[in-house]
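User: Hi! I have a protein structure encoded as tokens and I'd like to know what sequence might fold into it. I'm fairly new to this, so please keep things simple.
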């Protein structure tokens, strides 16, 4: 054996050891074909996700997801001056008002790290859900609020106790992605990443949860416009009256016949009345001829007059005169603006001035913000901007550029680049890293309306909606499929219209993004897609085992229910077409490709058109033909056990 072969074998053995801590016994076979992972243990790439600044403005703290650490950056010298190793894939963070204590969500590690910033050490860890995404600190109440993506809940932690203790968990709707506390600490505004509902519902959309901190309960749920999903960011106005939420706004009720001028995806800012628990308005961040894809984070000035938003898909930051927007929404339209026409009609703001019901039309108006001159976009100074922070004096913006491995400093007024701080040395991007960049990059789509990630959240999973693609005709929408084990679950798509996963990759860029990709881009994107792997289910026991109910369900899956006939391990699909009696008008043969069941716990709704909201509904409300294996013979308790097993996959 030569040295190259020995090195490869050594690398494989190291990767296997590292993956062992993450994988359940069932996954051991799957791990044999793992290529290059973006887990902290296997990657030296630097990927800043969230940022906060110290009260004196001298220091920036940034979570580094792929590096698995907290980076400490010095603003004066524009250099990294320290780092702290963390668990999991660190995500959101919150800094105490005096700057002495930092709380970091350790996504995938079931913990929030508590850091003494003066000593630059971790003083303790607080147990929370498996996938904490965001944290918010109540200084007056001495409470910490943590968004648990895996448990669809908010942990409320009493910091006055030693050690700090979770006093309750508050249920929200689906995969809480960000949260913001009002200045009086009476309400928490929580964004739910995606919609939860049946795909057949034409009004399906994500909602924003408003929690009353006095009763410690979700007091109101504010629905975003139909097609709203991918809701990653929220900020609250300094007076605590308004919540600003950024999200995608998909036109999923229409066939995808053309991408131009927002026919498929637009990108939006919704304004929520916190006390009233209602949505004031939704405004499009795009312009008439190109999208502002994948808005991610936002921050408000201390006087509440300006708002900034990062757009990870187009590598830009939007600056919005939000004070003037509120004036316009009240009908206070200056004469020069009122005189402008939208074609032969009065512009949208003149319509709002005379009829407040016209505010609803803003969610479909690509010219509203631009005709009013209240929005400007400028370059982020890096690739894939996510986290955003404003300096204490309001003069500078700090932008976490995920794929550049840097935090840039921008002039808050002009958007001009003042400097860039690298998180540290990193290797040149390999094909998987380049493919990940393409996957999240809307400049690889016609007019920049969306990226692959716009519909495949959480690194290639789903968006909770269904779409009417053209490959199998018009009038037969299908729910978004997860891309896990992309190359091992051929043929592709519900109707098996593509036999090759690589050809499907190329077709996605050509027909969905409507560009002519280079073969290198296709190869890189494909390398990323085939690197995606399932993560252990949060429905497993803490030591990664099946619960008693799931164990019984596994026996049913492999025996009495006969599920294994069409869903054999390790990918839980036989890769064949079947008619399970779930028919659509335009597809009377009812034949669909068997989907993989991996990560079923996070892929609702179910069946080809998303008509089943829960896994249980597949075997009850949608099994009249009795073709889901032999599940029709199960008792109610057995169905529950079977579902428990499916949730563990």
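Assistant: Happy to help. Inverse folding works backwards from shape to sequence: for each of the 649 positions I chose a residue that suits the local structure. Here it is:
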């Amino acid at each position: 054996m030569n040295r190259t072969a020995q090195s490869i074998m050594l690398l494989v053995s190291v990767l296997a050891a590292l993956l062992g801590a993450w994988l359940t016994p069932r996954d051991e076979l799957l791990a044999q074909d793992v290529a290059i992972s973006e887990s902290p243990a296997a990657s030296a790439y630097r990927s800043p996700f969230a940022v906060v600044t110290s009260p004196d403005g001298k220091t920036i703290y940034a979570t580094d997801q792929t590096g698995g650490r907290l980076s400490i950056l010095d603003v004066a010298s524009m250099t990294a001056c320290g780092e702290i190793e963390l668990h999991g894939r660190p995500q959101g963070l919150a800094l105490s008002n005096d700057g002495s204590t930092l709380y970091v969500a350790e996504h995938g590690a079931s913990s929030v790290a508590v850091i003494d910033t003066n000593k630059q050490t971790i003083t303790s860890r607080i147990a929370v859900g498996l996938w904490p995404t965001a944290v918010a600190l109540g200084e007056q109440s001495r409470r910490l609020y943590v968004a648990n993506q895996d448990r669809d809940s908010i942990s409320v932690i009493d910091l006055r106790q030693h050690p700090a203790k979770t006093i309750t968990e508050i249920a929200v709707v689906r995969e809480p992605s960000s949260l913001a506390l009002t200045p009086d600490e009476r309400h928490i505004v929580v964004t739910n990443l995606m919609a939860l509902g049946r795909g057949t519902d034409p009004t399906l959309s994500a909602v924003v949860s408003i929690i009353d901190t006095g009763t410690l309960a979700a007091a109101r749920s504010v629905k975003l416009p139909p097609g709203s999903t991918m809701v990653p960011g929220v900020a609250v106005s300094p007076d605590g009256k308004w919540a600003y939420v950024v999200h995608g706004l998909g036109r999923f009720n229409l066939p995808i016949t053309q991408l131009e001028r927002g026919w498929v995806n637009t990108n939006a800012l919704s304004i929520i009345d916190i006390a009233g628990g209602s949505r004031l308005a939704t405004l499009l961040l795009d312009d008439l001829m190109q999208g502002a894809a994948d808005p991610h984070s936002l921050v408000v000035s201390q006087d509440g007059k300006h708002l900034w938003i990062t757009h990870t898909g187009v590598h830009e930051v939007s600056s919005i005169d939000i004070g003037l927007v509120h004036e316009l929404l009240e009908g206070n339209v200056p004469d020069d603006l009122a005189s402008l026409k939208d074609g032969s009609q009065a512009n949208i703001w003149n319509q709002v001035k005379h009829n407040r019901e016209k505010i609803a039309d803003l969610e479909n108006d690509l010219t509203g913000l631009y005709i009013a001159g209240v929005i400007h976009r400028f370059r982020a100074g890096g690739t894939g901007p996510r986290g955003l922070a404003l300096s204490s004096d309001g003069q500078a913006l700090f932008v976490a550029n995920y794929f550049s491995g840097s935090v840039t400093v921008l002039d808050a007024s002009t958007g001009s680049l003042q400097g860039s701080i690298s998180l540290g040395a990193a290797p040149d991007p390999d094909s998987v890293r380049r493919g990940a960049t393409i996957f999240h990059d809307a400049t690889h789509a016609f007019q920049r309306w969306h990226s692959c990630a716009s519909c495949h959240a959480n690194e290639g999973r789903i968006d909770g909606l269904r779409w009417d693609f053209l490959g199998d005709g018009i009038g037969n929408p299908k729910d978004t499929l997860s891309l896990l084990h992309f190359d091992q679950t051929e043929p592709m798509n519900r109707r098996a219209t593509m036999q090759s996963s690589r050809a499907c990759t190329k077709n996605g860029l050509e027909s969905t993004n409507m560009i002519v990709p280079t073969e290198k881009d296709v190869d890189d994107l494909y390398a990323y897609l085939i690197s995606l792997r399932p993560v252990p289910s949060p429905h497993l026991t803490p030591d990664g085992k099946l619960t008693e109910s799931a164990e019984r369900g596994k026996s049913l899956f492999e025996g009495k229910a006969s599920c294994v006939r069409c869903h054999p391990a390790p990918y839980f699909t036989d890769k064949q077409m079947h008619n399970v009696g779930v028919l659509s008008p335009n597809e009377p043969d009812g034949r669909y490709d068997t989907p993989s069941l991996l990560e079923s716990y996070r892929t609702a709704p179910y069946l080809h058109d998303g008509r089943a909201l829960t896994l249980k509904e597949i075997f009850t409300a949608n099994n009249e033909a009795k073709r889901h294996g032999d599940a029709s013979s199960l008792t109610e308790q057995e169905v529950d056990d079977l579902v428990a097993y499916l949730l563990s996959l």
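A useful reference point when you look it over: Residues 535 and 596 are 14 Å apart (CA to CA). Feel free to ask if any position seems puzzling.
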